[in-house]
Design brief:
Blueprint lengths: L2 E4 L4 E5 L3 E7 L5 E8 L10 H8 L28 E4 L10 E8 L2 E7 L5 E10 L4 E10 L5 E6 L2 E5 L6 E4 L11 E4 L3 E7 L11 E5 L10 E7 L4 E7 L5 E7 L6 E3 L4 E3 L2 E7 L2 H17 L14
Antiparallel strand pairs: 1-2, 2-3, 3-4, 5-10, 6-7, 7-8, 8-9, 9-20, 9-21, 10-19, 11-18, 12-13, 12-15, 14-17, 15-16, 16-21, 17-18
């Protein structure tokens, strides 16, 4: 099976042809990332929580918690990375702690539901695996399970954690009119690097897409992480490198001047963020996304139509 839940280990493994994405349910109920990268066939070869904690520890081991690698980290607690979710309840409370409730596997789709133990909020994380493309579509469905409204200050589509190595390089494509999609590469340094648009419509100034590699990848060689947001409005990607050299990626709808009032019983669904990993270099990212878009995104009636070229 491409999507597995290993009940004894409480680990989810999503395997593409040449890639693996894995996360686990902690004793606390937190849903935490374990791995994203090249294909791993056996759960025993995944890094353990203890190994990952040692990478992010800046003090005594006992004072560090794996919860800092949550799949959908909400605002609250000790984490200082950008939260995937931030809300304000009627009483002014802003902390949300999402604990695992249940999950469902339906063919190539995994849905994992978590909720806060005290406040009326429930979040379902949706993972849709396209095995042959090594791509996983991610989104989040936020539900107000109470009677009173609350305000969503930001709700990104997903968070990602990269394996710790010395250096990562970010590739993205800013531009302007008559100067579109200029390939730009830079080393991800300590702190936050934001790539975004606030114009209300994705366009030639920036495209919601990124590639990250270890600085050694080329057109036909090397491991590359990539992601694209399927959304035409304001968007934002945050690339954070902390003092332990850990890379955290947060992406989705831009939270600039954006509050959403969610009424009791209503739901809000984020746009899809499609991301993957390839060991075939930048060229394979291009070819993979072209095939994925043609087979899964474009309407069937348009797939074979020759499109006009506009000058």
């Amino acid at each position: 099976m491409s999507i597995q839940y290993l009940e004894k280990e409480r680990i989810f493994m999503l395997n593409g042809k040449k890639s693996t994405y894995a996360f686990e349910i902690q004793e606390s109920g937190a849903i935490c990332n374990l791995f994203w990268g090249g294909r791993i066939n056996d759960v025993i070869d995944l890094p353990t929580s203890e190994e990952l904690i040692r990478h992010i520890s800046t003090g005594p081991f006992s004072q560090v918690n794996i919860d800092d690698r949550q799949e959908y980290r909400s605002f609250g607690g000790k984490s200082v990375t950008d939260p995937a979710l931030k809300v304000t309840f009627k009483d002014g409370t802003r902390n949300v702690f999402l604990n695992y409730v249940s999950h469902k596997i339906d063919k190539n789709t995994l849905s994992v539901t978590a909720k806060d133990p005290k406040y009326p909020i429930e979040v379902t994380l949706v993972y849709r695996l396209f095995e042959k493309f090594d791509i996983i579509e991610r989104s989040a469905v936020i539900k107000n399970t109470g009677d009173e409204d609350f305000v969503i200050e930001n709700a990104y589509s997903a968070k990602y954690y990269l394996p710790n190595i010395d250096k990562y390089r970010l590739t993205y494509f800013p531009g302007a009119y008559y100067h579109e999609f200029q390939k730009t590469q830079e080393i991800i340094k300590n702190g936050r690097r934001v790539v975004e648009t606030r114009k209300g419509l994705s366009g030639n100034d920036a495209m919601p897409f990124f590639m990250i590699d270890d600085t050694y990848s080329e057109e036909e060689f090397g491991g590359v992480y990539f992601g694209t947001l399927i959304w035409s409005g304001n968007w934002k990607f945050i690339f954070e490198r902390d003092q332990t050299d850990r890379i955290v990626i947060t992406g989705g709808i831009n939270d600039f001047d954006c509050d959403i009032c969610l009424e009791g019983g209503k739901t809000y669904e984020t746009p899809v963020l499609a991301a993957g990993y390839t060991n075939g270099g930048f060229g394979n990212v291009t070819r993979t996304l072209h095939r994925y878009e043609k087979e899964e995104i474009i309407h069937p009636s348009e797939r074979e139509r020759i499109l006009p070229v506009i000058y």
